[in-house]
Amino acid sequence: MADTDVRKPPIRIGAGVVRIEPKPEWLKVRWGAGPTFNLVEQQLRAHGLHTVCEEAICPNRGECWGRGVATVLIMGDVCTRRCGFCAIGKGRPAALDPNEPAHVAETSAILGARYLVITSVDRDDLPDGGASHFAACIRSVRERTGADVEALIPDFKGSRSALETLLEAQPICLAHSVETVPELYRTVRPGSFYDRSLFVLRMSKEISPGTATKSNIMLGLGETRDGVLRVIDDLREARCDGLTIGQYLAPSRGHLPVREYVHPDAFAELGEIARSKGFTFVASGPLVRSSYKADQQFHGERVGS
Ligand code: SF4
After folding, report:
1. Can you list the domains of the chain with their CATH numbers?
2. Which of 97, 109, 165, 288 is deepest in the core (most CB within 10 A)?
3. Rounded to whole angstroms, what are the CA distances from 112 to 43, 63, 144, 253, 290?
C-alpha cells in the first residue's frame, strides 16, 4: 500500500491507529486442514454449495471448518451489487437452482449442524429478491435436521412482502449487516442505503417480534469513533438484539484499502459500550464476523473481546 494511504489523517477509534503494513500480530492467523475441515470441504463440493467463508476470503475459515461449521452462500456466487469491500463476484447471476434447498439440508445433516447460518448474494434481478428461495432453504434444513437457522439476509430493497416471506420460514435469528457508518455508504456500499438497512431491521421486529435480529459493523474503512457510536445507537433504536464488530480486511488491492488496523482494546471498549446500550448479545474483536461462532453469540456466550 502506498505511503500516501498510510499518512492519511489519523482517525482514532479508542486505543488508536496502527500503521497499515505490516499486518499486526493479532490479525495473523495460521491454520492447516484436518479431518473435519476436509469433510466440510468435501461435502460442500459434493453438493455444489458455495460458502461466504471462501468467497469472502474469511480469515476464520480454518478454525470454523475445523469445527465443522460453515456459512452457506445461496443463490449463486455472483452478486448484483458492487460493494467496494466484498470479494464475491459481481455481475449477472445464473438462474436459481431448485435443488439447492435439498442440497443445503443434506450437507447440514451430514455435518451434524445444530445451528446453521445461511446467507446469500443480493439478487436484485429476482422479483422477490430471492426471499422465497431463501425461505425454502431455511425450511428444508429445519425439516431435515431440526437445526436452528440464522438468516443473514440482503436488504431485499426494503420490501415488506419479501421480509414476511422470509420470516414465515421462522429463522431463529435474522441478521442484516449495516457494514459501516452512513458517511461511507457511497464508497463502501454503492446501491445500498443506511436508512433502508435500519428500516429492514426495524420492520423485521414489527413483523416477527419474537425473532432475534442482529447487525454487523466493520472497522478500519475510515470511519470515526463518533460515527460508530451513532451506528450503535441507531441499531438499538431499531430494536436490534445482537451486534458484531470486526476488522475490515481488504480482499485484494482492487478493493477498498484498509485505513486502520483497530487495536483489540478498542474493540473491547466498543463491545462494552454496546452491551451497556442494551444489546442482548455482542461480539466485538478484530476477527469477529457476523457468522463467527454465531451459535455461541446467539446463546449469549462471550465471543471476541
Ligand atoms: S466466521 Fe463465518 S464466514 Fe468466516 S469462516 Fe467462520 S463461518 Fe465462515
Report:
1. 32-304 (3.20.20.70)
2. 288
3. 12, 17, 11, 38, 21
**pLDDT tens sequence across 159-217:** 999 999 999 999 999 999 999 999 999 999 999 999 999 999 999 999 999 999 999 99
- 218: number of CA atoms within 13 Å, CB side? 24
Closest CA to 87 of 77, 97, 96: 77
- Threshold 0.85, pTM exceeds: yes
> Hey, whose CA ends up nearest to atom 3 of ligand 1?
53
Query: Is residue 113 pLDDT above 50, yes or no?
Result: yes
**Average pLDDT score over residue span 19-48:** 89
Question: 79 with 121: CB under 8 angstroms?
Answer: yes
CA dihedral 73, 241, 170, 191 (to 10 degrees): -40
Report whether residue 140 contacts ligand 1, using a CB cutoff of 6 Å.
no
Going from the Cα of 97 to the center of ligand 1, the distance in angstroms, rounded, reads 23
Are β-strands 212-219 and 173-175 bridged in parallel, bridged antiparallel, or unpaired? parallel
Sign of the torsion formed by the C-alpha atoms of 28, 33, 38 and 42? positive
Spatial separation of the C-alpha atoms in residues 103 and 33, rounded to whole Å: 24
- Grid cell 435439498 in the structure block, residue: 102
